[in-house]
Structures are given as structure tokens and as C-alpha cells.
Write a structure and sequence with these properties.
The chain contains five helices and no strands. The protein is mainly α. The chain has a domain at about 1-40. Helix 4 runs antiparallel to helix 5 (about 100-115). The two termini are about 35 Å apart.
Length: about 120
């Protein structure tokens, strides 16, 4: 049984390093943000601007991944990548702005297209 667990989880030292160096420091700032930002008005001009900047950064990252795909995504043809984004956008709009529906639809189109192309 422990052999199975060792193969499944890999090196536990690496997992502990990821937990201590990646997860925990990030969670401290998230909790602090929740605590400090609990009484902030969501409709304030500052938060509207912050949301717009965050959305623009996310759109830029997605565009960069589409145009210059990293890693295994580079093996997916461009028409399939753009088609999956278009299908996800259509699903997002049709389901009245459901992010989950858009992401799932895009993933299904991408995986089905890659499977069909071989």
C-alpha cells in the first residue's frame, strides 16, 4: 500500500516545498485581503478600475497563450484553439454569462478536436 502511495504522490519533499513556498504564503495575503476588504463598497470607482485592469491582464494572457501556445498546446492547430475559444464564448453568452459553461464547452471542443485529429 505504501508503495502505491509513494508512486501516486511522488517525492513528499517536493510536495512539502510546494506547500510551504507556494500555497501558504499566497493564502496569508488572500485571508488578509478578505479581512481588510470586507467593508469596501464593490461599486466604488477604485474597485471598478481594479476589476477592469485585472480583466485586461487576463485577456492579454489568454491572447498570448492563443497566439504563442506553450508546451503541449503548441501541438494543437491554431484553428482548433481559436474554435474552442469561440465555442466557449458562444456557450458563455447562450447560458447567460455562465463562466463554468464557457470553460467546459471550450475544453470539450479542444479535447474532442485533438482526439479527432489524432
Amino acid at each position: 500500500m505504501s508503495d502505491f502511495v509513494g508512486h501516486f504522490f511522488g517525492d513528499w519533499h517536493a510536495l512539502m516545498a510546494m506547500l510551504l513556498a507556494g500555497f501558504l504564503p499566497n493564502e496569508v495575503w488572500r485571508m488578509l485581503g478578505l479581512w481588510l476588504g470586507g467593508g469596501v463598497d464593490e461599486g466604488s470607482e477604485l474597485l471598478v478600475w481594479v476589476r477592469a485592469v485585472a480583466t485586461a491582464i487576463l485577456a492579454g494572457v489568454i491572447a498570448q497563450i492563443l497566439v504563442f501556445p506553450p508546451g503541449a498546446l503548441a501541438s494543437v492547430p491554431g484553428f482548433l484553439r481559436y474554435g474552442a475559444v469561440a465555442a466557449g464564448l458562444v456557450a458563455f453568452i447562450v447560458t447567460r454569462r455562465s463562466i463554468l459553461a464557457g470553460v467546459v464547452c471550450g475544453e470539450v471542443v479542444m479535447l474532442a478536436g485533438k482526439w479527432w485529429l489524432g
